[in-house]
Amino acid sequence: MMSIEKTSSKYEKPIPLKTIDNKPYWDAADQHELAIQSCEDCKRAIHPPGPACPHCGSPTIEWINYGSDVTGTIYSFVMTYVPMLPGFQHDLPTIIAQVEVDQMEGVRITANLINAAPEEVAIGKAVKMTWIDITEDRALPQWALMK
Amino acid sequence: MWDLSGKYAIVGVGESERSKNSGTTPLHLALQAARNAIEDAGLNAKDIDAFMSYSEHDSCTSHQLATYLGVRPRYVKDIMGGGSSTELLIADAVSLIESGQATAVLIFRSMNGRSGVRMGGGGWSTDLLQSAIEGGSFIIPYGMASPSQWFGMFATRHMYEANLTQEHLGHVCVSFYEHAQRNPKAMLHGKPLSMEHYLKTSHLSYPFTKHDFCLETDEANAIIVTSAERAKDCKSRPVFIKGIVAREAHPHAHYWSDLSQVAADYVGERIYENAGIQPEDLDVASIYDCYSWVVLRQLEAYKIASREGLGDFVAQGNLKMGGKLPSNTAGGMLSEGYTHGMNNVLEITRQLRHEYKGTERQVEGCELGLCTGWLGPDAAGAMILNN
Ligand SMILES: [Zn+2]
After folding, report:
1. Which of B101, B214, B288, B385 is the most exposed place for a label (fewest CB within 10 A)?
2. What is the rounded average pLDDT of the residues B137-157?
3. Is the pLDDT of residue B346 over 70?
4. pLDDT tens for each residue of B156-210
5. Which of B134, B142, B259 is facing A76, going by the closest CB pair?
């Protein structure tokens, strides 16, 4: 499953930039876990993470770790046949899926749908989160079809 | 209704040569477009006291343009932005004149969009992209760096919910390409598109084929706005701003987080009340068309067709001449040329002046037109014009 990433000497694709607002998300991803920001006031989940709650403006936010068992259904997708960024020329079509996550309400996470043929992709299909080790200390969450 | 309805008008429109390789600078192109707009209005350059532009770091400045028109401007402003910036700046022009800061405003967009900085061009640092775009770290690592993908994500979901097929996207393309065949200045003049050919074209980025993408061209466009009072001195037939919604925004800067709504929905809620008309009163439209699907989504947002009726609306030929709402009658950005929307504003102005009268390009007797701007699902604006 991870053969392409493991055999290439250098990871050519963009590596997620950690920022003051998103660091816990990517730190958890590096551990093959999902962490999502949540508002302590209105209790709603927040994604992508930010400096405050976009639902109510509250500055009081916390992080909740959902572990490694994350599932969802495809909400929308695109399939791109030309590389838009470095590294994706090896990976065409690039399938990008936005997935409605089962473990929390109102969160849709966008990632590549890996190991899927274009004709297998459809709205409503069940997927699970999987993590690809892209460098020695970084991992990237991806979606895979539940077979 | 809007207090200033009918008190301001577009009195001049002009463009430069349009090509794939201008061989010159955006300043030269802007000068051509500005001189043509000034000539069209029957004004002198010195009658223009404010100059404004929008760009994506690919243009000249307003101050440069004014300088080489031989004018010391009272007011210059250059904003960053693409689609919907024309409407935004026209609303600004109205405010400037209303508040006595200016009397006649020239707005331009100049770009070597094919030979220079290309919108689909890439070459940006990926770290820069991640920090420049809200939530960029959550899309760039997945190869999602083009508007065709950002908007495409909305399109796939919306098409699923609205029962739209590839053929419906094709109807938008085929309709606009048909208009381009009546416009000798359109890039795709002489290159009509059949549905059969469209459906055989492969995807560049699903659900879009190359026909669903706008063109990239080198060109400049200019528009002159002044008061209805002042318009009486101009030689052109004024086209009045009946209503305008300068800009509305999606609830989240990371608009991909909610594919169920677009900024245009909020513009659609206000524009008709603002102009004091109903959608069914419209005779002609210029609908921002960076992608074919964007037209379908706006037909819904602007209440021209219901979500359930979108597919039938375009399949019945309602965007074509003789349809319910002939739209993008010069070919639009899909087949005429691309200046982030301003070329569509030029065309609707000419339609409302009845400039094509006696030819098959004229929308017979049109009086009311809708012009929409779409920066993306994140921001949009619109205006309603009348003659
Ligand atoms: Zn909150």
Report:
1. B101
2. 97
3. yes
4. 999 999 999 999 999 999 999 999 999 999 999 999 999 999 999 999 999 999 9
5. B259
Structure-block tokens of residue B90: 């026209």
Over 90: is that where the pLDDT of B132 sits?
A: no
Interface with chain A: mutation pick from B144, B146, B209, highest number of A CBs within 10 Å = B144
For residue A78, which residues of chain B lie inside 8 Å, CB to CB? Answer: 144, 148-149, 152-153, 156, 205-207
Short-list B327, B262, B316, B325, CA closest to B288: B327
ipTM more than 0.85?
Answer: yes
Contact residues, chain B, for A19 at CB < 8 Å: 131, 137
Spacing, Cα A49 to ligand 1 middle (Å)? 12
Over residues A23-41, mean pLDDT:
98
Whether the per-residue pLDDT at A7 is higher than 80: the answer is: no
Alpha-carbon dihedral sign for residues B246, B239, B7, B78 = positive
Separation CA B176–CA A121 (nearest Å): 31
DSSP B291: B
Domain residue limits, chain B: 8-117+217-231
In a mutational test of the B interface, the residue from A80, A123, A129, A134 whose CB has the highest number of chain B CBs within 10 Å is: A80
Arch. (CATH architecture) of B8-117+217-231: 3-Layer(aba) Sandwich (3.40)
Distance of CA B249 from the midpoint of ligand 1 (Å): 20
Would you list the domain boundaries of chain A? 17-68, 69-147
| A22 interfaces chain B, CB cutoff of 8 Å | yes
pTM of the full structure: 0.96
Mean pLDDT of chain B: 96
Which three-class secondary structure state does DSSP give residue B240? strand
